[in-house]
Amino acid sequence: MTAAEVLLESGCIPDAEAALAAGLPLLELTRAPEAEQHGRVLEARCRYFQGRRNEALELFEKAAALVPEKRSLVAAEKIRLFLPDAERDRRTFSRALEWAEGKRLIHDRERDEDDRIPCTVIRVRLQAALRGTLGEPRFAQEAAGFLDARRAEAQATGRRRREAELLFLRSLLFDVLRDRPAAHTAFAEALRLAARNGQYLTVASLPDEVFRRFRDGSLTAEENFRDHVLRIRTLIDHHLYSGGVALTEELSRREKEVLALLCAGHTNSRIAEALFISLPTVKTHLSHIFQKLDVTSRTQAVLKANELNIL
After folding, report:
1. What's the mean pLDDT when you consider all of the chain?
2. Helix (H) and strand (E) counts in the chain
3. Which of 21, 141, 159, 193 supports an S-S bond with 164, CB 3.0-4.6 Å?
4. Rounded to whole angstroms, how far apart are CA atoms 31 and 33?
5. What is the pLDDT of residues 206-258, one digit of tens each?
6. How far is it, in rounded angstroms, from Cα 263 to Cα 211?
7. Which pLDDT score, from 0 to 100, does residue 132 have?
């Protein structure tokens, strides 16, 4: 991975953007179109996670033009990145599904790179199945075979990051097949690999159907890894889905302390222990915080706190 990729995967988006700004002009001068294309895709991802969708789309177009024969790879990267928008917009999702239904899962050449295309196809179609857009996917058996074969290759070549991504997709496939124990097992294994590899952004960018397992805390993950992933996810959601809001009433000092611990991903019990207060008192503070922020859930409270910059 390049320095920009490492920074982006760690959620350090401004630093990743700075690294790209320093490196891309050199790639232009040396006329390395494939490397520059990869850099432009990374740059587009940075802009997207900052909520600058139009700039991201322009960069994807620029990347596709650099190496025309690899436009499909750039398209797969764009669709995968914009899937959170597609999940919330029927028209956008329909376009993604139309693209996915026209693609085959198995490619004979450039297998390593082409994995991005079939993996995106699988994700789109499985999410369509979970949304009820499709019934039981007829390609489920083919998808399972593809994922298992690619995972075996990833294990044999020591590509642990790729293995984790494939396992996350396997978990989504088991969800579609309504095999919840298998989905849970696949996700837990993927999560262990991702934590070991430092795949923060990979986990934070998982589709809602998969990410809920991570958010609910029922699976073991190293605490610092969990906290950092939740912070990245909150930042992404804040940039992509928040609107202009205002605080209706100032929070007290104690409410801000409770909210800060909530934003760090702590449970009510841990907040009580950290502040030396009772669990009912924590719940009372949270009730007041929710009312003042005009929210109804912990996730909404975290998003609003970040948007208003009140901590």
Report:
1. 82
2. 18, 0
3. 193
4. 6
5. 887 778 778 776 566 677 888 888 888 877 776 665 543 445 567 888 998 99
6. 17
7. 67
Cα first-last separation, the chain: 34
Amino acid at 274: A
Q: Are 198 and 11 in contact (CB under 8 A)?
A: no
Spatial neighbors of 310 by CB under 8 A, at least 6 apart, are: 247, 251, 256, 259
Measure the CA–CA gap between 288 and 251, rounded to whole angstroms: 9
Residue that the structure tokens 């993950």 belong to = 221
Give the contacts of 15 (CB within 8 A, at least 6 positions apart). 7
Distance, CA of 186 to CA of 174 (rounded, Å)? 9
Q: Which residue has the tokens 């097949």?
A: 177
Q: And the tokens for 43?
A: 């740059």
pLDDT of residue 45: 92
Contact 184, 213 (CB under 8 A): yes
Instruction: Encode pLDDT of 57-115 as tens digits.
Output: 899 999 999 999 888 889 889 988 888 766 666 777 788 888 887 776 655 444 445 58
Is residue 267 within 8 A of residue 285, CB to CB? The reply is no
Distance CA 128, CA 126 (A): 5
The conformation of residue 178, written as its DSSP 8-state character, comes to: T
Helix (H) or strand (E) holding 10: none
